[in-house]
Design brief:
The protein has 287 residues and is mainly α. It has 2 domains: 141 residues, no CATH class; 101 residues. It contains 11 helices and no strands. α3 packs antiparallel against α4 and α6 packs antiparallel against α7. The longest helix has 47 residues. The protein is elongated, with a radius of gyration of 27 Å.
């Protein structure tokens, strides 16, 4: 009986491993999931395009484990350590989002200058490839590297469409998508109103940047209040958990349920406050 069960187990394991051991055909690469694409785009927006999303996930796991260990060392409560681990695991993602938003605010200021440079180049009689190359040499510093890479890609492939696609992927910005698609349309179908369209776009971008800066300055207190309101109770709780009687109270099933429910309420409240205090970002329609 033991031999028969062992044979059945071996056959089952062999059947499970057979697609990997004897593949019938080359497997097509799996399409990247929506979450994977969003994470990769966020890395590009943060200026970390060379970092693989899997590395970020590993960093999140390590940060969560380290945070849970530190919290458990301070206050030996399993539920509190779990909450600390979850918070620590999210910290790299929060830092990534903060860096991406900061870079977007920085580039939002220079987009009108990019458009003005394009208008000047077109008026000077330059072709679109020459205008892109000029932005890679003397454009704003925040976008110079992306346009220089687009110029190199254009020199290598000779196809400005491929260079435009690469430029959009490197910038990962809705304003860049709009500018690039305007240039692509002018390249493919022609147009005598290109300079007028670009001038109008530059004026709109300046007004939008000024309005966003003013509103964000007024709404910054909402974000700061949300962060303080969420962090303060947990800091006090962590200090209280250093006392033996508090450890016994929170280490019970009722205490664990209280901690988990409080953590969920904190997440919901924080998300609501951040949603109230943050302006909606423009979506990428041509990305």
């Amino acid at each position: 009986m033991t031999v028969a069960l062992g044979l059945l187990l071996g056959v089952g394991l062999l059947l499970v491993a057979s697609p990997l051991l004897w593949p019938t055909a080359e497997r097509a690469p799996r399409a990247e999931s929506r979450a994977g694409r969003a994470l990769r785009e966020r890395l590009v927006q943060a200026g970390l395009s060379d970092l693989h999303p899997a590395v970020l996930i590993v960093l999140c796991v390590l940060a969560g484990v380290a945070s849970a260990a530190v919290v458990f060392a301070i206050a030996p409560v399993a539920a509190l350590a779990l909450v600390g681990g979850l918070v620590g695991a999210v910290v790299p993602l929060l830092l990534l989002g903060w860096r991406a938003r900061r870079r977007r605010r920085a580039t939002r200021i220079v987009w009108p200058d990019v458009v003005d440079n394009l208008v000047s180049a077109v008026r000077a009689g330059m072709s679109l490839p020459e205008a892109v190359a000029e932005l890679g040499r003397s454009g704003p510093m925040a976008t110079r590297a992306a346009f220089a890479a687009a110029d190199r890609e254009l020199q290598a492939s000779g196809d400005i469409g491929i260079a435009f696609d690469g430029l959009k992927a490197r910038l990962a910005d809705p304003v860049a998508d709009r500018i690039v698609e305007t240039l692509r349309m002018a390249r493919e179908v022609g147009g005598t109103e290109l300079t007028a369209v670009l001038r109008g776009l530059a004026g709109y971008l300046r007004q939008d940047a000024a309005l966003r800066s003013e509103v964000e300055a007024r709404q910054s207190w909402v974000k700061n209040a949300a962060r303080l309101g969420v962090a303060a109770p947990w800091i006090v709780l962590l200090l209280l958990a250093t006392r033996p009687e508090a450890v016994r109270a929170y280490d019970s099933p009722l205490g664990a349920a209280l901690l988990v429910s409080g953590f969920l309420v904190s997440i919901v409240a924080y998300r609501i406050m951040i949603a109230v205090g943050r302006l909606p970002e423009e979506r990428r329609w041509f990305g």
